[in-house]
Write a structure and sequence with these properties.
Helices cover 35% and strands 24% of the residues. The chain has 254 residues and is an alpha/beta fold. Helix 1 runs parallel beside helix 3 and helix 5 runs antiparallel to helix 6. The mean pLDDT is 97. Bound molecules: zinc ion.
Length: 254
């Protein structure tokens, strides 16, 4: 069995520990805050076997060196971001597999936010760690890739089992909700989900993880083919990635 521990880090990041009870191995998805991650390990009497990085941004790799010094763990990082990541022991890319104990994770390359970005998917467990590619009701900014890259990456994510639990790296959901309502105002499921998100946040609770199916029904960045969104944007004839590009452009200015 895999246990996931979610650790609030920095201002709005989440770190994640994934622990396999059978092998006693523990990995950290990214390293936003070495101190907070080490404390979470110590509290449980776990030791860190490896860090799996999703992409090269500082709030994802900033704790790599300190955690490696403290725990002697391996660092596994996306080869497409290799120019920007120090201290990695292994580089991974699309189609590679990693193991924690006997449990396999698939690596999927999702360029867009950075060109090397990867996500880690435990298909048998229906759990995915998606870094800054997909957020609840949002997606990562296009710092390096274009809208066509990101649209393709989001299509790969949408193709996962709809019951997959999505662990993204930021609590951006409330802001994303306000924007989503401007693009898809008629969506009844979005209204229902919006109500839940607002009450969770009002109670100081997390909105992460979420189930992929909820996002497929309500996240405008996954719904560029939806006739109502296209009509709302006046883009009935555009291709899906062009509709996605317009939604991303509007969000950047929101
Ligand atoms: Zn990032």
């Amino acid at each position: 069995m895999l246990k996931v521990v979610q650790i609030p880090c920095l201002s709005d990041n989440y770190g994640f520990l994934v622990h396999d009870e059978a092998s006693k191995q523990t990995i950290s998805i990214d390293s936003p805050d070495a101190q907070a991650i080490s404390m979470a390990l110590e509290q449980r009497n776990w030791s860190l076997s490896a860090i799996w990085n999703t992409h090269h941004h500082f709030d994802h790799v900033g704790g790599n060196a300190a955690l490696q010094t403290r725990w002697g763990c391996e660092i596994i990082a996306p080869k497409g971001d290799a120019a920007h990541i120090e201290h990695a022991d292994h580089w991974v890319g699309d189609g590679d597999k990693l193991k924690i104990g006997n449990i396999t994770a698939d690596i999927i390359h999702t360029p867009g936010h950075t060109m090397g970005h990867v996500i880690y998917v435990f298909k048998d467990k229906k759990i995915a760690f998606v870094g800054d590619t997909l957020f609840a009701l949002g997606c990562g900014r296009l710092f390096e890739g274009g809208p066509k890259d990101m649209w393709r990456s989001l299509q790969k994510l949408s193709a996962l089992d709809p019951q997959t639990k999505i662990y993204c790296a930021h609590e951006y959901t409330e802001g994303n909700l306000r924007f989503a309502q401007t693009v898809d105002p008629q969506n009844a499921e979005l209204k229902t989900r919006g109500g839940k998100i607002t009450s969770l946040r009002a109670a100081g609770k997390w909105t992460i993880p979420f189930v992929l199916a909820e996002d497929i029904a309500t996240n405008p960045f996954l719904r560029a083919s939806d006739p109502k969104i296209r009509e709302h944007l006046g883009l009935q004839e555009a291709s899906n990635w062009e509709v996605f590009a317009e939604i991303r452009r509007r969000k950047d200015e929101f």
